[in-house]
Amino acid sequence: MIIDTHSHLYAEEFDADRKEVLARAHQTGIAAILLPNIDVQSIGALEQLADEHSAFIPMMGLHPTYVKENWQQELAAIEAQLFAAPKRYCAVGEIGLDLYWDDTFLEPQKEVFRLQVQWAKKLQLPIAIHVRKAFEPIFEILDQEWTPELRGVFHCFTGSKAQVQRILKYEHFYFGIGGVITYKNAGLAEVVKEIPLDKLLLETDAPYLSPIPYRGKRNEPAYLIEVVSKLQEALGLSAAEIEAHTSRNAIDLFDLEKFLTFEHA
């Protein structure tokens, strides 16, 4: 059993062949796919997909790169959606900071992230963190907002060994590992050895960040077997061990037994 803890399968990139993508995921052993929200415009497609397929479990949040001039209106709409039916969502996400392109909206990004962290604590939900070129400001906010019940995942983790140790101090935080681990120059295959097995999660971030040998093509959940294979190589474990541990971690973090029945959980 494999759980893809971060996939945008509601995106238009899958409109032409979503049924076939789902079939391949099922054949690969994907038992559940978690859907992070992006902004107000993505809510409709996300909700429709979650309604149509029981294996899809939605999150709700405002992605940092969509924090623009109208961020207050966007955030208010996201808040209304989340608080109207909090039990529908497995996490507040994806949220965080992104300074890869520019820092024009850094201060609004910080405020939006902080508020969404506070929502998660109030609703007792985990958070799915997007962080790109912004570990230090993320840590600054988490240091201020951290309480023992706060939990979550650093989605698409690409940090250093030192950053692994920093994150582990937050106690209930996990590391989402995807296609980047297969990239020769990424260095993640060495860093992942520093992560405890009970803190690892699998994810695709589909349609982005396809693993080798699919790099440059659209990503999809079935390609997680390539991530599992690289983790086998890095950690010296069997595929079955990696799948069992990461699935149990996902079930624990996102409380997935509230959403699905797992025969082999």
Task: Walk me through the structure.
The chain has 9 helices and 8 strands. The longest helix has 18 residues, at 106-123. The protein is globular and about 45 Å long. It is of the alpha/beta class and 265 residues long. It starts with a strand and ends in an 11-residue tail after the last helix. It has one domain (2-258): Alpha-Beta Barrel (TIM Barrel). The mean pLDDT is 96. The strands form 2 sheets. It has a 5-stranded parallel beta sheet with strand order 4-5-6-7-8, with helices on both faces. A 3-stranded parallel beta sheet has the order 1-2-3. Helix 6 links the parallel strand 6 and strand 7 (173-177).
Poorly predicted regions: none
- The portion of residues forming beta strands comes to 5-15%
Structural class: alpha/beta
Distance, first to last CA:
8 Å
Backbone shape = globular
Helix content percent band: 25-40%
CATH class: Alpha Beta
List the helices and strands and how they pair.
Layout: E1 2-4, H1 18-28, E2 30-35, H2 43-52, E3 56-58, H3 71-84, E4 92-98, H4 106-123, E5 127-132, H5 135-145, E6 152-154, H6 161-168, E7 173-177, H7 188-191, E8 200-202, H8 224-235, H9 239-254
Parallel strand pairs: 1-2, 2-3, 4-5, 5-6, 6-7, 7-8
Helix pairs in contact: 3-4, 4-5
